[in-house]
Amino acid sequence: MSAVVESLLARERAPVDAALAAVVDGAGTGPLAEAARYAVSAGGKRLRPVLCVAGYRALAGRAAEPVYRLAASLELIHTYSLIHDDLPGMDDDAVRRGRPATHVAHGEAVAILTGAALIPLAARVADGAGRDLKLREGVRRALVMALCSAAGGGGMVGGQALDLEAEGRAVALDELEGIHRKKTGALLAAAPVMGGIAAGADEGQRRALEVYGTALGLAFQIADDILDVTGDTAVLGKTAGRDRQLAKATFPALAGVDEARGRAAAEVDRALEALETGGIRSDELDGLARFAVARDR
Known about the structure:
Layout: H1 3-25, H2 31-40, H3 47-60, H4 65-85, E1 95-96, E2 99-100, H5 102-106, H6 108-132, H7 137-151, H8 156-166, H9 173-198, H10 203-230, H11 233-236, H12 242-245, H13 251-255, H14 257-277, H15 283-294
Antiparallel strand pairs: 1-2
Helix pairs in contact: 1-2, 1-4, 2-6, 3-4, 3-9, 4-6, 4-9, 6-7, 7-9, 8-9, 9-10, 10-14, 10-15, 14-15
């Protein structure tokens, strides 16, 4: 990982975590709030919120505090998806980010309800951040719509359903790509787009950020597939080899590790070309795209 990305992730994690803590601390008390704090505080790369902030900065310069709250809305959705992914009825994994999954620590019923509660909370946080950024109602609506569209049946949730349906059967590469673009790519694509919307991006810039994020999302998921084969549980913070145990279709399984790496690199090139076409110059977005395939967890 380049020094630029190392510095960026280290610098941005603190304000993102502070925004997340403020949001969940304000969500009340009781089992759901406790489980939400547990899940959100587990750490992670915070790639989605950092992409949102980097997208904002690429067009508007310095990011004010409400931008980090906007970015936190993406991490709330991502956290909900991880809580549900680990459930016995889904991927049935007991470990997440190096510690017991939420349903192991707090019980299955609480985990299900906590994940569900994070969805409307994320929408409220995104709208509130837009208000504090003095954005017009139509722009705030666009932010919430981008978040919900990426999270819903046409995006992340739909991709998860397709992923489950594909377990244990033959899947072609183009079908697998479609699953990945929804399950992982949709929310990653929404992150820089939401930052751009908040910064006043024009239509061409929004489209460039969307293509960038979509390509980065596919590259990121292919890299995840590769790490499941080549990585170590202690480093990954989740169970290595789980895709093979569940007979999941993955790029390495269908095309081999070397071809999968080549496809991920090609998607990174596509992401960077989109920024150039849109006239967006950002060392941060450039470095984050390269990080998607160079990481070890």
